[in-house]
Amino acid sequence: MPAALRLGLTGGIGSGKSTVAGMLADLGAAVIDADAVARSVTAPGGAAIAPIAAAFGGSFITADGAMDRDRMREHAYVDATARQRLEAIIHPLVGESMAQQAGAALRAGHSCLVFDIPLLVESGRWRRQLDRVLVLDCDCETQMRRVMARSGLAREAVLAIIAAQAGRAQRLAAADAVICNQDLSLEALRAEVAQIARHFGL
User: Fold this and answer.
1) Of 24, 43, 60, 113, which one has the fewest beta carbons inside 10 Å?
2) How much is the pLDDT for 61?
């Protein structure tokens, strides 16, 4: 049996990663979503909850047993090491869960595994584990317009998120393939995805 292609999917916030991941899944890819896994390990009963409580204190866990995201975000602003300590807890758990999902997808016979990783470029470690990287690209104004429309966040908040991510040039430098999701209709985007997916065995 030929080895499955391991495709990394990334792009800045508001670039359309979730939409494209869904389109690739429709074409037969197995999609493994790093954000969804991270949310699951910090949800009530998640594997990260006990280590987070031990490292940061019980006040960082909500009444229903999830990580208090707002409190953790505020804490990270005043404690420069908080994010690194949190990532040291979460990242190994996310990696382990994603590896399990990948194994299940391989056993199910998928020929292309899509790893949806928002911080693929920033992490530094993911690139070595992937065969190809597909980057979704659009300009900053487009990102802000989409994120503000869907989340209700203020412009300044969205700008801060964009500033914390890798820049466009960094992402494009890491790309094996690029889809410019700037002014495309959903139908045009689907056509672009279908065309590029042929290069990934889909």
Assistant:
1) 43
2) 94
